[in-house]
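User: Predict Solute carrier family 12 member 9's structure from this.
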Amino acid sequence: MNAQTSINGDPETAPIAAARRPASMLRSFGSLFGSSNGVNRRVGTPQGINNGYVEFGNPERTGRTLGTFAGVFSPVALSMFSALVFIRVGFIVGNAGLYITLLQFFIAYMILLFTVASVCAISTNGAVEGGGVYCGYFAAFIPDGTWWRFLFCTVINTSMLIVCLIGAALFAKTSVLILGIVTVVLLSTYISFLAVDEMTIRKPGENTLLPNGTNLTYTGLSADTLAENLYSHYGQDYTSDGKTVDFATTFGVLFAGVTGIMAGANMSGELKSPSKSIPGGTLSAVAFTFVAYVILAFLMAFTTPASTMQNNYLFLMPINFWPPFIAIGILTATFSTGLSNLIGSSRILEALSKDQVFGSWLNFIVKGTWKGNPIVAVVISWALVEAILLIGSLNTIAQVNSVLFMLSYLATNLACLGIELTGAPNFRPLFKYFTWHTCLFGLLGTLIMMFVINPIYASLSIILCLLLVIALHLFSPATQAAQWGSISQALMFHQVRKYLLMLDPRKDHVKFWRPQMLLLVSSPRSCCPLVDFINDLKKGGLYVIGHVKVGDDDDVEENKRWLLYVDHMRVKAFTEITYASSIREGVQHLIRLSGIGAMKPNTIILGFYDSETPKDFFQTLVLKLSLLLKVLVLFSFFRGTSPYKTDGFNISGLPDFPIRRDGETKQIDIKEYVSILSDILRMKKNLCLCRHFHRLDKDFITKSKHIKYIDVWPINVFNPKTEDPFDVVSLFMLQLAVIINMLAKWKHLRLRVFLCETNNTNSSTFETHDETIPQMEIFNRTKLEQSLKSLRINADILEIEDWARDTEFSRHSRILKHFISQTEHSADILSEENLNRSLLYMQRVNKILRDRSDQTAVSFIYLAAPPKVDHPNFNELSARYIELLTELTVDMPPTILVHGVSTVTLTTL
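Assistant:
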């Protein structure tokens, strides 16, 4: 966290700047993929700089004009009263009894209290902005199931729409006024319970469960009435077609009425000091409403028979000393609750849109904002409420409403628990009455009660939430996740660090060996197929794409470009960029420092050193995009400008990496290249050189009936012999071929192993004239088959007899035996005559390979070790080494030259 970021968001204690738009205060509420500290921190900038920020302390420009009472306490208290206080407390007490009612209030308020603790912890951990909770757009109103009342509710809903369209200031003033009215009405209700004596109450007309003319009674303060109301006696709900009431029904109605704890948080963008107002205002409102509800439940149980409370939900009106008071209280409480939810949900919808949580689908909401008021978001929220009103019965709506609110509380507690468990240093809330225990209890309580209320609604809501999370992953830009900070990233960091420490390199065993790849890339634009192929070859192991930049001019944007490249390639790889005085030095840095702990690269892969002009796969991609881009390319051609470059990115949106063009020299010479190869083997790493991978087309391989094989050539053509073709190098090469053959797109190909029969000599003396070459024992085909079987490798064996039958051919190959041993005869090897004979030999070997590679997708060929760097003739040997490898692989399919240094196969279980 930046040192200037305020801990409590107070404009007088830190130079905080708020965004002109309200972002989300509690992005973690809707899912676990929100802010790692629950807030969007933005450090202030000097006044007058037009960069999208304005000073936090200027309420006229930021719209932060609300204090604790008007901005938090009033909307929270009114939302928690809602229609429950005057209409449904009697329904709950009449059915569940006083004991169960108090238990339900205790459970509900404990869940709310633990959730409020999470909210307070998040809201006191930094500068809080607008947006609130990313979940729940539904509010409880007064529908009783008839169409004409739907019209009545629509009128009230539309009046709330008008208030919200005017703005938050009018909402705050309205809330304070309504809270005063509701408080007066509630006090009049308490007084009426104590003052009014026994009386008769009429059955409401819509109650068809009782015969017409049936009257209900009110006893006033009575011990007998209290005794009757202590225990539950569930009946039927006359507003829901006589459905039987149970514990889940009453708790659903109760919880739906007290789910207003986020009303203040949802207005965070309009609060002067959110981090102070939200905890204080919310907790005081929760305490106030809890006391009010408990007193009301006691008075009802003391004075009103259960049958009256079950059969007339408006019984408070006739017993009040001035009946219109109750009507006023119901209308104002319901109006304020709906108003709070409507304006809060619109702010949430606006924040979702501006933060592009689900991509660009909601961009039209941003465009529909006028003077800071999200007009389109308000209208959409109003339309959603209208749709919910069609359900009709409040008790039915209550269960849906309760489950959705509980889901948001569950996500809040889960997100806050995740933050706490990660141990993030920047999570230092000023609210001290918060621990991971409160989060856990709130989470478990919410989850359990969701299924108690309605298992079907709970299951569907969780599925809906998971779908939203999936959509968030698919459509949310990576830049937004980086801006917020991701809880999932913090959790993964915590766990990965722990398991990396447990991954002891001393316990490595060949039985569980897998390739850990470091692919050294010079030009990412020309090696796209190779990058994709190595991603297949890694077999769940570590995959690092390394790049060396010569010099010390550190480009801070370089890593971003490479990450974008990896995203485009859709490979599971890490990127490592290093700056060094030479490429060789940089490669040494990458080999030594890439990875961590036991996850270090064991196989280094390079492209082949040749003179071919690199193919630009970015240009190919751009030309395939659309006809419009082709027109743009043509237009740019006539203008003499590059059609691919735009502020460091080409027109396809990919980074504009440099690429070597015709006539340009390589950044690395042969000597340095071969030195790198020698360094890799000296550092005990397996080595792979890849050539012709610009020809690789995986889609064509999958569809083609012509391409059938993956070839393995376990013979060192620099020193051909058949005493044992399965040495360490051959076994490593075979293992790589088996790995690629296990993948879905390569599985249909047949693995072929070529058994090359050769003549060899025991003489250690270099001969250039013809002589009789003693015949060595030929490696038996049966023994090879048994070896493959013991390694559990299914492959075809093909015998190649050219080496054994052609004496001249064998004589040429003997020259190279001394090349790789680098004996004192190296000077003879470098002679013009022997060089020509070696090239001729490689050309003949190449012909053997090509003749059998017409239907081959990829070939694995034995790579002889390069010359040693300390050899006196290293420069000349390096040039000859690359020249011979070039002749060996010319016109081949995609080819990997392999030199292994470690045992990677095992014949036992």
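The first strand starts at residue 17 and ends at 19.
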